[in-house]
Amino acid sequence: MLTTIGSIELARRVLRTEIAGLEALIRELNGELDAAMRLLADVEDRVIVTGMGKSGHVARKIAATLASTGTPAFFVHPAEASHGDLGMIGARDVILALSNSGDTAELGDLLAYSRRFRIPLIAMTSGKDSPLATAADVTLLLPAVAEACPMGLAPTTSTTMMLALGDALALALLEHKGFSHSDYHALHPGGELGRMLLQVADLMHRDAAMPLIPRGATMAEAILVMTAKSFGCVGVIDRDRLAGVITDGDLRRHMGDDLLRIRVDDIMSAHPKTIRPQALAAEALGLMNAHSITSLFAVDDERRPLGILHIHDCLRAGIA
Questions:
Q1: Residue 170 pLDDT more than 80?
Q2: Burial profile 220-256: b = 16 or more Cβ within 10 angstroms, e = fewer
Q3: pLDDT of 161 over the 90 cut
Q4: Whole-angstrom distance, CA of residue 1 vs CA of residue 309
Q5: What is the mean pLDDT of residues 83-92?
Q6: 6 vs 176, which has greater pLDDT?
Q7: pTM for this one?
Q8: Cβ neighbours around 195 below 10 Å, total
Q9: Is CATH 1.10.1140.10 correct for 200-316?
């Protein structure tokens, strides 16, 4: 029976072996990676990722990562491909096939199909002279390193290298395409990640909902707007630009018999905190907390108000 110390040492040995595989992979990257990137970046339709067994599980994850980072992709099971799923692969696709040995029998029909219809084929394999590597247009050769399995049988180091290389391809494509936060949010609208990527523009109130009043107006008019809009503030505009902001705190500080006759210009804060509509809502919440304010106007580069965000909008969206 393993002791705790023995288990930890075994785990460390496995991790060191897999790290050694990744380091070897880094050292041996070559021009084939550039060629693969060009095929993937120029694909007209989708990336078809395929593999059998453990390589197939990794292929599914690579397809999901590509799809979620702006490169349309999906997994095709090689055995199912032989029974009709080849019809899912089009002439404008690119195939990325994973097999450690490169001699996986179930890939045979899919390889033949790709050659018959001249569909670009990228191989990810450690079998330099294997049928897969020989058939491929581009071969991403995995270094010959030991599996972490003590019997050298269970795919461990090899699948770790495949997974990491798939991540490298997906994220290099992400940067090449200029994939942005907003693009990422469009593909990840749900859950914690979706909330993290919400922008101010997704939550802000626009147009007639904004509490705005022109310079020169009286505080009586400003209070009416503040009361009607319920943001606890009013924006003062000058030729469509945000010139200042008056908050309910300003009202309390200037309370007096003549308050209603005072011009908004005399009370407003002339340099209010603002934010870009493209900023993350989490950034807006941080700004409001840092300056003890409850609302922010979203403005463009000319300081034209495009919307207003209240702290409660962030909290309702689950941003905290």
A1: yes
A2: ebbbebbeebebbbbbbbeeeebbbbbbeebbeeeee
A3: yes
A4: 60
A5: 95
A6: 176
A7: 0.70
A8: 17
A9: no
Q: Helix %, strand %, coil % for the chain, to 5?
A: 50, 20, 35
- Where would I find the H helices in 74-205? 78-81, 108-116, 131-135, 157-176, 181-187, 191-196, 200-203
CA 237 to chain centre: 37
What is the predicted pLDDT for the residue at 257? 80
**CATH 3.40.50.10490-classified regions of the chain:** 4-179
From-to residues of CATH 3.10.580.10 in the chain? 200-316
Q: Per residue in 205-259, pLDDT tens?
A: 999 999 999 999 999 999 999 999 999 999 999 999 999 999 999 888 888 888 8
Strand 295-299 and strand 305-310: pairing? Answer: antiparallel
Nearest residue to 123 (alpha-carbon basis) of 65, 39, 41, 46: 39
For domain 4-179, the CATH class is alpha beta
Give the type of residue at 185.
H
Whether 169 contacts 36, CB under 8 Å: yes
Distances (CA, A) of 126 to 58, 110, 133, 158, 159: 15, 19, 9, 8, 11
Residue 193 has pLDDT above 60, yes or no: yes
- 255 residue type, one letter: M
Measured CA to CA, the distance from residue 189 to residue 197 in angstroms comes to: 8
**Per-chain mean pLDDT for the chain:** 92
DSSP string, 215-246: TT-BHHHHHHHHHHH-SSEEEEEETTEEEEEE
Interval 8-22 mean pLDDT: 93
